[in-house]
Amino acid sequence: MSQPLTPPKMKSMKAQGSPIAMVTAYDYPSARLAEEAGVDVLLVGDSLGNVVLGYETTVPVTLEDMIYHTRAVVRGAPRTMIVTDMPFATYRGSKEQTLRNAARLMQEGGAHAVKLEGGAELGDEIALLVSAGIPVIGHLGLTPQSVLQIGGYKVQGRDEAEAARLLADAKALEQAGAVAVVLELVVEPAAAAVSRALSIPTIGIGAGRGCDGQVLVYHDLIRYGSGIRDKRFVKPYADVGETIRSAVSQYVSEVKNGRFPEESHAFQTQAQPQEKPTTKLYGGDPK
Questions:
Q1: CATH number at residue 95
Q2: How does the record describe its quaternary structure (predicted)?
Q3: Looking at the 3D structure of the chain, how many domains does it have?
């Protein structure tokens, strides 16, 4: 891909039945590797609070955090569409505040689009952003910024009322101008129904096979970290954490035992070249 994906192209991919592959990224090397691997979209998720910054929830993540990490991702993946989460309390306050904060993510961070968690109640804010030229992706189902309010990480859409509310919210987001909707931890039938009802793509994470694309957290996908918890909706494709742990452990052992560094890792002084005698052109022997 020579140019970043655009919202119209995403919509076209849905119409053509071409799945969208999204993954999170939080820094330059992960973004660069993901772009080289061919991902369609990179999400600078506020999940960086959990997997990079060590917070229990995403709530402590600030706008400055998101701008900082978005800049790094943009540098690592210049040919990939970059979507950045608007973190907790940077929207829903006033439309002016929402526009100002979203604009900072675009202007200072370099994001191509922003993502907001919430349903129909965000319609006016989304419409304002869209009218200002800011592409918006919605986020329904489990909304991590509200996890303290909803009482934990629970699967959504299990009963008819929840499923109907999801569908209504998704339609409201599309009506407001959202270019896509992330569905997180939603039962497969409800997610599939939402996907069929929308003309914009749905991106699932723990939402089954009926979505128009999928997203996984980078650290879950490759098991990068310590104490990575297995999740039913995640398929790990590598165990980078164990590889790193083993490599560092071997390094520590070799330093302690004097096996590193070896001669091949050291620099030596070079012998000074001997001064050559000079020959006089006229008279006498060389001195």
A1: 3.20.20.60
A2: Homodecamer; pentamer of dimers.
A3: 1
Distance in angstroms (rounded) separating the CA atoms of residues 206 and 193: 15
* pLDDT surpassing 50 at residue 287: no
Q: Tell whether 151 is covered by a domain.
A: yes
Residues, the chain: 287
Would residue 96 show up in a list of annotated catalytic residues for this protein?
no
Residue 132 Cα distances to 4, 126, 176, 216, angstroms: 20, 10, 13, 29
Q: What is the pLDDT of residues 63-95, one digit of tens each?
A: 999 999 999 999 999 999 999 999 999 999 999
Please say whether the beta carbons of 12 and 40 come within 8 A: no
Q: Is residue 271 part of a domain?
A: no
Residue that has been written with the tokens 């869209």 in this structure: 130
Residue of 35, 184, 188, 263 marked catalytic: 184
Q: Give Cα separations from 105 to 85, 115, 131 (angstroms).
A: 9, 11, 16
Could you tell me which residues are annotated as the binding site? Answer: 46-47, 85, 115, 117
Domain encompassing residue 11? 7-221
Binding-site residues from annotation for Mg(2+):
46, 85, 117
**105 part of a folded domain:** yes
Tell how far CA 121 is from the center of its chain.
25
Peptide bond between residue 261 and the one before it cis (omega within 30 degrees of 0): yes
**Among the listed residues 133, 136, 131, 193, the one whose alpha carbon sits nearest the alpha carbon of residue 162:** 193
- Is residue 226 included in any domain, yes or no? no
Residue numbers belonging to the annotated binding site for 3-methyl-2-oxobutanoate: 46-47, 85, 115
DSSP of 79-92: TSEEEEEPPTTSSS
Q: Could you count the other beta carbons within 10 Å of the beta carbon of residue 283?
A: 5
Give the predicted TM-score (pTM) of the model: 0.91
Q: What is the tens place of the pLDDT at every residue in 10-22? A: 999 999 999 999 9
Tokens of 142: 């489990």
Structure tokens at 137: 């992706």
